[in-house]
Fold this protein.
Amino acid sequence: MIIQGGMGVGISSWKLARAVSGCGQLGVVSGTALDRVFARRLQDGDPGGHMRRAVEHFPFPAMAKRVWDQHFVPGGKMEGASYRNLPLHTKENPRDIQELLIVANFAEVFLAREGHGHPVGINYMEKIQIPHLPSMYGAMLAGVEYVLMGAGIPLRVPGALDLLANHEPATYPLQVTGARDGDDMTLTFNPREYMEYDLPALARPKFLPIIASNILAMTMVKKANGRVDGFIIEGPVAGGHNAPPRGKLELNEDGEPIYGERDRVDLGKMRELGLPFWLAGGYGSPERVREALDAGAAGVQVGTAFAFCDESGLREDYKRALLADAAAGSARIRTDPQASPTGFPFKIAQLDGTLSEQEVYQARARICDVGYLREAYRRDDGSIGYRCASEPVTIYLSKGGKEEDTAGRKCLCNALLANIGLAQVRNGKHVEPGLVTAGDDLSGISRFLAPGETGYTAADVVTKLLVARAPEAVPAYHLSEEAVLANA
């Protein structure tokens, strides 16, 4: 009934997904930038030894050793030292980057599945296309049961899952601005080039695209190259990237996009498709869960409530500050039409010391050294180049970008890593600031705080939301970290 949102970079960590799945609902890890998250955890010395525990179960030990030896720093890097940067993704990623993607996705899913027998999912952004195939294969090696994907039109994901389940070569189309007929825009991944011995076929995970319109739902049903197992319907009040409003962009007095009737999904038409669907965006209360069920939904996807629970990956100072704001009724979200280099509206929690403050944004040098949200474009010689509207303006213009597209753009890649305590340090003193995203329901998370408490658990969220069904059917969950590990 409840799908936990696959949020940001590392917010939906394995700890959060494991806690939610341990309660019998669908825990979902974020697959975004997992290679970099995994590498930085290893450079921090693998606190708690969790990554080592996962890697010891990876089916191909030689690959696991290569990845571990390349990135692990015994005892962790020195305080104030920079993280070693990885090469930015390109269409022709080298083997060591592909192996890192496979192992990192395996580890996150493996840890999320420890200690319980319930399904775990993984969430990807369709716009970040280059890592898709090795990432999904790594997650499938760990037994992921659901793949969720939004921020694009993932027509070729179902077929790729079918092929990867049988260790067969899979392809995925790379969107290249300015591409011409005959240009090579196909990403290819052959699992057997990475396997150290034969494995039986893997379980093909169920696929749930995240959509914001009936047209996209119909397109997926009619044109996807494989089975679609259901939909997550996400409204414009959900956190992170939002689909832009349909029609001409209009802004309110605060400079936020205005959504109207055309942006609402017709649930009657969704029911006619005959596939289960979950509603997302503002459904983090028992009343909204009941409303979704009455409308024919299989359940809801909830992000913001889980993003601020004890098990989420959000760093503690950000979490406690925004929880306090929510409890005081002063929490504020702004839907920024310019912040994301993708051009999609992006929801930002207003928080001191983060890029939500204009002075913090202006003080940061424009640097693009993570690059997940870069745009692939065709150079004059037919080769593929990469540019980001958040990189230095002169560099972006030299690659054919438009100056107006750079206004107000923020480096989400570095900021989202900073949100989970993996901020890059430059010259021993400059620490990348974070930028917290959350849904419009941020102020509502205070409903999960017990009197006198300053925090809550994922189990608290599940228990409260499940009141929407018959009270006698609602169990209470008290799953401690120690209990989960003991079961594992």
Remarks:
- The chain has one domain: 2-314+447-487.
- Residues 471-488 have pLDDT under 50 and may be disordered.
- The chain is about 30% helix and 15% strand.
- The first strand starts at residue 2 and ends at 4.
